[in-house]
Amino acid sequence: MNHTARALFVGSFPPRQCGIATFTRDLVDSYDACVGIRSDVVAIDDRSGFNYAYGSRVVARLKEDDLPTYREAAARINALPANVVNVQHEYGLFGGDEGAWAVELLAAVRKPVVLTMHTVLASPSTNHIDVTRALMHYADRVVVLSETARTLLLERYGARPEELSVIQHGVPDVALEGSASAKDALRLGTRPIVSTFGLLSSGKGLEYAVAAIHEVAQRYPDVLYLLLGATHPNVRATQGERYRDALRALIAGLDLEKNVAMVDRYLSLEELLAYLQASDVYVTPYLNPDQVVSGTLAYALAAGKAIVSTPYLYARELLAQERGALAEFRDARSIAAGVIRFLDYPNLRARAELAAYAFGRRMTWPKVAAQYASVFASVAPVIAPVLSAWSSRNTNEISAQRKAGDEHVHLHSHCRGGLRQNPERNELVCRSAEHDERLYVQHSSER
C-alpha cells in the first residue's frame, strides 16, 4: 500500500528515565522525520506517582497501576486522528499479572495496532504465554527486534509468520572514528579505555566486569574502565544505591580506584557517543541468558566498537560472524581474556570494529523508521477506497473468518469497530466493537 500512515505511539517517554522511553522518543522523532507528519504520544507513567513534565507531543497518559486510566487512554486514542497505533511493549511497563492490563488497552482500541515487543521469554510460564497470545490476538502486526525473538514467538507462543516483522533496534548514525581524538576531547590521554553504559541494576553483572579489570590491569596498568549511567529509577526507589555501593566497595577492595571510574548520571546522547567513541573495548557482562534485545549493545555495535559480551541470546545473534567476542557468564577471567585479546592485537580489534560498524549501518534510525513506515502502511486503513468498495456492493451479508480459527460466521449489520483493507488477502477487515474480536471480512459475492 503506497500511502503514509499517521501514527500514534504508546510507551514510556522522556523525561521518564528508562530504556523504552529513550527508544520511543527516538522512534517517534525518526518516524516523523521520515514521513513529514507530527505524531502524538500516549505516555505510560510508572507507579512512583511522579508527575512527569511531558512536552506537547504527549496528548494523554496512562498510569501503570491504575486500570481505569487504560480505558481512558483507549478512548482518547480512538478519538484522535491517527490511523495506526504503535504500542511499545515491555511486560513491566503495564499493570496486572504478567502485565495483563496491556491486553485491556489493546482490546479497547478501535484502530490497527502494531505491537513492538522488547521482551520475549525463552522459558515462559503458562500464564505468561496466555498473556502474550492475547496481546498478539489484538495486534494487527507484531514487531520484534531480533531474529531470535521471532523464532521464540513462532516456536513457543504459537505465532504465525505473517503476523511478525523483525526490525532491528534503532541506533544513532555516527561516523566510524578511532578512539584517539575522542580521548583527547575527554582528557583521557592515551590510556586503554573499556566501558559499559546503561542504567545500573544488579542483573547487569557489572561486578564481574570490575573483577575482570583487576586482571586486565596486571597487563595494562593504566587501563581505565568507565561505568557510565545512573542507577535505574525503579532500583533506586526500592533498594536505594545498594548495588552501586557494593560496586564501590569491590573497586576499593581490589585497589582499582585508579582503574575504574563511575559516571553517576543520566547521560545525554552527545555525552554517551563521546564516551563510546573514546572506548577501545566495550563490555556487556549481563547475567540473563535469555535476553533478546539490548539497546546498549546495539549502540556500541553501531559505533564500531570491539565488544566483549556474555552470550545472552541477543549478543549471540548480534556478535556473530566475528563482530565481537563472547565470554562466559559470571566469569571475570573469561571477560578479562576477551578484553586483553583485543588490546593485545590491534588488527583483530580493527577487524571486529569494521564488522560491527558495517552491520550497524542497517540499524540506523532513518532506516528503522522507514521499516516502521512500511509496516504501518501495510495495516493502516485507507478510508476512501474501502468505503467506496463497500458501498458499491448490493448486499450487506458478509462472511467473516475469525483470526484464531476456521469457524465462519455471518454478519448482517455494518462494522462498528472500524474498517480497513488487507491487500495481501484481498479482504476488508472489521474489528467488532461488540465482541472485541478481530474479524477478517469478505463480501459474500467474493467467497
Textual characterization of the structure:
By secondary structure, the protein is α/β, with parallel strands linked by helices. It has three domains: 7-170 and 366-378, Rossmann fold (3-Layer(aba) Sandwich); 179-363, Glycogen Phosphorylase B (Rossmann fold, 3-Layer(aba) Sandwich); 383-446, no CATH class. It has 16 helices and 18 strands. The protein has helices at 19-35, 67-79, 101-108, 126-138, 147-156, 179-185, 206-219, 233-239, 242-253, 269-278, 295-302, 313-318, 332-344, 346-360, 365-379, 383-391, and strands at 7-11, 40-45, 58-63, 84-89, 113-117, 141-144, 164-166, 193-197, 224-228, 260-263, 281-284, 306-309, 325-326, 398-402, 408-411, 419-422, 427-432, 437-443. It has a seven-stranded parallel sheet, sandwiched between helices. Strands 10-9-8-11-12-13 form a six-stranded parallel sheet, with helices on both faces. Helix 3 (101-108) runs parallel beside helix 4 and helix 6 (179-185) crosses helix 10 (269-278). The protein starts with 6 loop residues before the first strand and ends with a strand.
